[in-house]
Amino acid sequence: MQQKAVQQAGRTDRGDGVALAWIQTPGRGPTTVFLPGYMSDMTGAKAMLTESFCVDQGLACLRLDYSGHGASGGTFIDGTIGRWTEDALVLIDHLTEGPLVLVGSSMGGWIALLAALARPERIAGLIGTAAAPDFTEDLMWQAMMPFERAQLERDGVLHVPSLYGDPTPVTAALIADGRSRLLLDRPIPLRCPVRLLHGQRDPDVPWQTALRLTERLQSDDVQVTLIKDGDHRLSRPADLALLERALAGLLLQDGA
Questions:
Q1: Active-site residue (options: 87, 202, 204, 239)
Q2: Residues 144, 19: Cα–Cα separation, whole Å
Q3: Ranges of H-type helices in 33-162
Q4: Domains identified in the chain and CATH numbers
């Protein structure tokens, strides 16, 4: 009987007194790293499915929370795409070695791409679920009315209604930083296998984003799965089964 790996949980100071929370499962490589979405954390259904798959297969896995998210320290409104990417890289560099498969949900898909570009020699594969590169510009700034843009520039923060609970705070710093990290306006020099899952009833990130991303990626091994009745979260059992299949395809030699 195979003994299950013992998880470790901890908090790592990123260097400025802010502690980043993580949960790590040891195993063979490549290490799978789950990167959550905007205002989400490492306890969501897709994160847990990813970890469960890795545990069952004896594979290493790392879940994490960016600053201002979940169990990590820091304040959410102090975060930006660049800051949260650096948070992920701090933990990746501190806790893992060897090849990586990055799994990013929504904003986490953008962060996965940026992290892969920062560590290209380590990336064995990338999976995006409702991946949202450039969302601060394309889906936030472009959707704002002139008076909202004026309020954001005046106050530094705008509270936008959300389908999932309390209004979402959007900061001027988030928009400005995101503008400096846009990816869909140029070729993306990644050549690893990429798997993209996207619901065609996603009210937050248009499914066409997956196709735009496919065009920009320089990898020839890119596959897009569109789920006709899928929403943004892609957390139904059938959606999670598709994620598990994508994990198997990248992490298991026989793809089974």
A1: 202
A2: 33
A3: 45-57, 81-95, 107-118, 135, 146-155
A4: 12-133+189-251 (3.40.50.1820)
DSSP state of 232: S
- Residue among 106, 134, 204, 239 flagged as catalytic: 106
**What span, in angstroms and rounded, lies between the C-alpha atoms of 170 and 137?**
12
Specify the 3-state DSSP secondary structure of 27: coil
Q: Residue with structure tokens 């957390």?
A: 235
CA separation for the pair 136, 171 (Å, rounded): 10
Enumerate residue ranges in the chain where pLDDT < 70: 1-5, 253-256
Q: 3-55, pLDDT tens digit by residue?
A: 566 899 999 999 999 999 999 999 999 999 999 999 999 999 999 999 999 99
106 carries an active-site annotation? yes
Specify which residues 53 forms β-bridges with: none
With residues binned 3-state (H G I as helix, E B as strand, rest as coil), the percentages for the chain, rounded to 5, are 40, 25, 35
What would the pLDDT profile of 238-248 be if each residue is shown by its tens digit? 999 999 999 99
Contacts of 206 (CB under 8 A, 6+ apart): none
Q: Is the dihedral of CA 141, 143, 148, 149 positive or negative?
A: positive
159 is catalytic: no
Does 16 participate in catalysis according to the annotation?
no
Find the helix or strand (DSSP H, E) in which 179 lies: helix 172-179
